[in-house]
């Protein structure tokens, strides 16, 4: 187990909060045998987050495309998944006439912000790895001479 320090504190906090929040929501649902509006929203946020993370985790498969095309393609796939999830919920509860637009808006803003942040961090990591490779090549080239 990793020690909690100032570099990973926020990440550990977010992971613990997520696990505890979802566990408490599921315990409430199973205890009372009903889903209230707040619990439904928590589960919807969890589903939206899962969709976003799964789609962003597949970015490496699209290396042959430009970063803008990757972001747009992944966004449209994510939005389509969320529309499908919203449609699935309509099988149990009617969706408000503006429900699909509301879902798209509340999903799009955090998703696009998160994907831009992810792509920026990914670019930084690749740049750092390339610098490390170049340094190793220089050191290896000096030893041969």
- The radius of gyration over CA amounts to 21 Å
| Overall geometric form | flat
**What is the strand tally?**
0
**Tally of contiguous helical segments:** 4
List the helices and strands and how they pair.
Blueprint: H1 9-32, H2 37-57, H3 67-89, H4 99-144
Helix pairs in contact: 1-2, 2-3, 2-4, 3-4
Describe the structure.
- Helices cover 79% and strands 0% of the residues.
- It is an all-alpha fold and 145 residues long.
- Helix 2 packs antiparallel against helix 3 (67-89), helix 2 (37-57) packs parallel to helix 4 (99-144) and helix 3 (67-89) packs antiparallel against helix 4 (99-144).
- The longest helix has 46 residues, at 99-144.
- The model has no long low-confidence stretch (mean pLDDT 87).
Features:
145 residues, mainly alpha, 4 helices, flat
Concise description?
This protein is mainly α.
């Amino acid at each position: 187990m990793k020690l909690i320090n100032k570099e990973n504190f926020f990440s550990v906090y977010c992971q613990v909060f997520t696990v505890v929040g979802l566990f408490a929501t599921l315990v409430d649902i199973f205890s009372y045998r009903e889903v209230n509006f707040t619990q439904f929203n928590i589960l919807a946020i969890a589903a939206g987050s899962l969709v976003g993370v799964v789609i962003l985790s597949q970015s490496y498969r699209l290396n042959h495309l430009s970063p803008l095309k990757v972001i747009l393609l992944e966004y449209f796939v994510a939005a389509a998944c969320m529309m499908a999830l919203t449609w699935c919920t309509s099988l149990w509860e009617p969706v408000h006439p503006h429900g699909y637009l509301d879902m798209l808006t509340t999903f799009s803003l955090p998703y696009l912000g998160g994907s831009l942040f992810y792509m920026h961090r990914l670019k930084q990591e690749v740049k750092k790895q390339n610098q490390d490779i170049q340094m190793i090549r220089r050191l290896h080239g000096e030893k041969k001479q």
